[in-house]
Amino acid sequence: MPPRTIALDLSRCSSYVCKSCLDSLRPPVSARPWLARPASSTARSRRTQRPPLPHPRKVQAGPDPAELQRILIEELERGPPEPPSSSAGGLDVNYFNQEAPGQVRRLRDNEEFGEIAGGLDSEIATAIDDLEKKMINTAKMLQRMEKQGGRQDKADELRKHFKKTLRLQYKGKTGPEAEEYGLLRISGFSGPRQRPVANLNTFLARDSVVKGGIPRARDLTECWKYYSAARKTLSAAWQNVPPEVWNFLWMILSWEGEGVENANRMQHLYILAKDMQAAGVPLRDSQQLLAVEAMFIEGWEEEAIEAWKKAVVTLGSKPETFTDYWELGVRMCCLHGDTERAQRAAETLLKSAHPPNARILIPIIRALAAKEAAVAQAWEAYSDMRTLLGESMTIEDYDEVIAVFLTSDCVEYALQAFVDMMFSGAIDIRGRTRLPLAVGNHFFIGKWLKRLIGVGDLEGAYKVVVYVQRMGITASPIQLNGLIGAWLRSGSAENFEKADALAWNMIRARLEYVKLRQRRDVVQFYDPYKLDTTDGSEGEGEPEFICHSKATAETFSLLAENYCSRRLHGRLQELFEVLKQAEIGPTSFLMNQLIRSYSQNGEADEAVNLYQTMAKEQNISPDGHTFLTLFNSLSVNRLIQRDPDLTKKDIDSARRFFRDMIQTEWSFDSADIFAQLPRTILFSMLKAKDFRGTIVAARAMKELFAFHPPEALLVELATGAGSLQVRTKRNMERLVAGRRTIETLMKKHRMGLIAAGHPGVEMTEEEKLAELHDVLERLVLLKAGGQNVTREELQPLLEVAAQEMGVYDIVVKRDADQIAKHKKLSKLMGGALV
């Protein structure tokens, strides 16, 4: 029903307004204002001369193509009602639309009056006009073709194609199960408030929505966006929403398929179900079950359970919904704490003629295990499930049951479930003070801990460590280090504290062991369970867990890396002091972390002194990561604003680091360090303006690292270090300029080859690699301002730099024995890295 329109007759010579019109402008009262008695017969006569407004016809959504065309043609033939013409007395007629009680808006012109009075919005009118034009043009074309001789067959073919096109145009959407929804459109709304409805109609009419029968993540988001915006308008006349639209909205908002995340699925379904109930739209059986579940999840637990109880005669007895109905009841009752009703529902389900799914007992196991007095019943429910499933019980089922018991602090039952999984129920450990030998060893416990850590149950793994130690089993430090590492990788502050506490617990065990070992008469009688475990908290509740597993070098490495990344320099220094007391020799990894920490703390000199002390006095062999850390500690890599004095010191330091790197025996252990180290060396020396050292380093790394600068690295060197980290207009200009510089140097190199007799058409792989090295050296000379220097003039300068960098025999003499001696590529990694 379109909004009621009011026509007011206003005279040019008089300001008189009839009482009927005044009443329509007042707030609504019990009596209908537009039925009030008119003030004069003149106004009544003017009103009776107006032609009556036609009753608008509702265009229902979803008719067949023929019915839709018939309705559209009728609307076209009828047309909008003609407004009454002005009288001969010179009267103006203005039209007003009552959009809400007490709110009246003046219409712009007769065209707007016709749209509102006809009950069709502008989009429908536009669609009708387009359809009318297409039909008329097509009919005229077919008539012309039929009048022409020999074109009857072609006309018949086009007529069939036109009918098929009309059918496809109004066929509507197709759902995931090939269900057809017909024409999806909501009509019957007008005025300014109809804009959200028009937006929803536009969304429903998109060809890209539910393409191929499967909604996309974008469909889910935009469907709720447009529907939620239109809800307020639709609530004024729910009956105008066709059933096809409700079903289509439900299909999208309830979608739960792979690859499409529907995070607010239940919230949206709960609101949609309430709207459908308000509109009087009956829910299908499957929709009722989802609506009850959504109601429960949204917090209306008691109401949802009550609704579930009432549906036992309908949904609980139909074969199509029997299983889903009772499984929903089991889950809801378990979450609500009504385990007795949940058990009765599960019993009804399992004893029925329908194929039982014993995994429905898992929610019952979880609910019973959460109650300390019902843990035994939870174990009985698990035993029943294992009996019903038999050989079909999977490892994932065991994992879920184990997680349930671990969460409830029932570690003994969790261990028994793991033993059942490993030994098929042949061993029973419940109630024993000592575990059987097949179970009570750190190898078996290590398998369990590894599995728990692998699935992410870190809290459960820690509970297992505490439990097995009380049972006389010391967990392996390898497994505990894995737990500490998993905690640290999680990024949680709470897990950081747990990892730190367990690691230092292991370190204390190591220190106690060292103290006992230092006593000659006690070494052979060492027993970790005789350590002092008092912590001063006796009588104040459960004592603190004292770990008996001793810390290893990996434990210190995990803490060192974490402290360094979090910039806890003081804690790292404390850790290294304890490392000496624990009598664990420092490794290159620990040295690298301490050097990096000193560098981050602004103590670069201390970092270098530490490196020299640990490498020379403590005989710690550096590796590639050590020298990468040292080059990163240079001021040109640490400071944003360069210091000339520090930059000069960087030249000597970089050459000294390079000499140590060449003379130390180490090899690349990963492709990552192989890519980072040469790049960092070249950038560091180039930023320090050690141009001779840069050329010598490139030649030495070519022989010892098999390093060839890629073209992308040449462009970065031409533009400057760190200039391309942010995609700004300035950086893009520098990138283009750097690319042009490299192309110019490559062109010069090839021109030199042509002048020497090379054809210059195709180049071998060796020639391409030689070109890259030549371009690198030309680039360095260009930055140094000595691009016109000849090789004869450059050679003496390079020899001095090579002597200081310890590669004179490699770069100048090219001694094959020295090159083979100092190569840094291992036999296993060499081929892959090159």
Automatic annotation (TrEMBL):
Matches recorded under InterPro entries: PPR-containing_protein, PPR_rpt, TPR-like_helical_dom_sf
Domain of life the protein comes from: Eukaryota
Region spans: Disordered: 32-65
PPR repeat positions: 587-622
NCBIfam families for this protein: PPR
Protein's name in the database: Pentatricopeptide repeat-containing protein
Lineage of the species this protein comes from: Eukaryota, Fungi, Dikarya, Ascomycota, Pezizomycotina
